[in-house]
Amino acid sequence: MHYQFTYSTYQRPFRQPLKTSHGSWEIRAGIIITLTDGAGRSYQGEIAPIPWFGSESIEQALSWCQQLGDKITTAQIYRIPDTLPACQFGFGSALIAFDPQPSIAVSPLDMSALLPSGTAAIERLQALSAQGYSTFKWKIGVLPIAQEMPIWRQLIAALPAAAKLRLDANGGLTYPLAEQWLETCSQEARIEFIEQPLGVDEIDRTIELAQKYHTPIALDESVATCDRIEAVYAAGWRGIYVIKPGIAGFPWRLGDFIARHQLDVVFSSVLETSVGKTAALQLASTLKLSRSMGFGVDEWFSEIAR
Ligand code: MG
C-alpha cells in the first residue's frame, strides 16, 4: 500500500522547565506526520523523541522523514529500524488508524497528575485534589534527601486518604538512598510505587530491592523501548512497567508483548500533543490497563499548540 506523506515540526515550550535527575527540559520538539491513502483518507502520527530516555534524537527522526520524499509504503513503515523507536510509533500509529479503531473514553481525572519538584508540589497537590485528581507523581532525587524527606512528609500529610502517590527517582538514587526511601515508604500504604530508583542497567539490583521491601517498584527508563522491555522481562523483572508508548516502538509489537506476558503496566506520556496521546490511549484501551495512566501533564504547557 502506498501513502502520500507529509510532515511538519513543532516546538512547545513548558510553562516552567521540567526538572528531573536528568536535568532541566524547557521545550518539547516533535514531528507530526500525515499519511494519505489513494481514497483521500488522511491520518496523523506523532514522533516525540526523548533521546536522554533511550529514543532517537529529533534530528535523527527528522533526517529519516526527509529521506523519504513525499511517498511511503506499508513495507517501508515495517522496516523502520529499532534504533528509531519514536518514528516506529509515529508511523505505526498513523498506519493502524486507517483500520477501524474502538472509541476511547478516559477521564482526565483518572490520570496520574505530575507535580512540580520541591515545595511547589504541596500547593499543586491541594489544587489538583480539589479538582478531583486522585493519583499524583512527584520527582525525587532532585534535591538532597535531607531536603526532600521533609517535603515528602508534608505531601503525605496533604494527600487525601483515598489518593495515591508515585515517587519517580528517574534512576537518580544510589542503592543506600533507594533503601532509605523504600524504608520510609513502607509505613505509608498510599505510596503506589517508587519508580526507577536505580540506573537503567541495574536490573539485578532492582530485583533484589523489590524482594526486600513492601513498597512496589516500577521500572521506567529501563523499559523505554520494546527491545529493553523484552530484555528486562527475560532478566526476570515481574514488577511494574512504566511504558511510554510514544518512544517504545511499533504499537502492535508493544501491545502483543504486554498482552502475551500480562505485564503490570502504567502507560505514560512523553509530553506529546493530542495526536500521539490519542494513539497511546487507543492502545491502552485495547489492553484494558488497570493502573492510572501518566498523562496528567497538560498544564505543563502554556499553550496547546500542534
Ligand atoms: Mg519516570
SSE blueprint and pairings:
Elements: E1 2-20, E2 23-36, E3 42-47, H1 58-68, E4 71-73, H2 74-78, H3 85-96, E5 112-114, H4 120-131, E6 135-139, H5 145-158, E7 164-168, H6 175-185, E8 191-195, H7 203-212, E9 217-219, H8 226-234, E10 240-243, H9 245-248, H10 251-261, E11 264-267, H11 274-287
Parallel strand pairs: 5-6, 6-7, 7-8, 8-9, 9-10, 10-11
Antiparallel strand pairs: 1-2, 1-4, 2-3
Helix pairs in contact: 4-5, 10-11
The protein binds magnesium ion.
Residues 168, 170, 195-196, 220, 242 line the site of magnesium ion.
Could you estimate the helical fraction of the residues in percent? 25-40%
Report the CATH superfamily of the largest domain: Enolase-like C-terminal domain
Counting structural domains, the number is 2
Principal-axis shape: globular
Outline:
By secondary structure, this protein is an alpha/beta fold. The protein has eleven helices and eleven strands.
Task: Describe the protein in words.
This protein has 306 residues and is an alpha/beta fold. It folds into two domains: 2-96, Enolase-like, domain 1 (2-Layer Sandwich); 108-300, TIM Barrel (Alpha-Beta Barrel). 37% of the residues lie in helices and 23% in strands. A seven-stranded parallel beta sheet has the order 5-6-7-8-9-10-11. Strand 6, helix 5 (145-158) and strand 7 form a beta-alpha-beta unit. Helix 10 (251-261) packs parallel to helix 11. It is globular. The protein starts with a strand and ends in a 19-residue tail after the last helix. Bound molecules: magnesium ion (MG). Magnesium ion (MG) binds at residues 168, 170, 195-196, 220, 242.
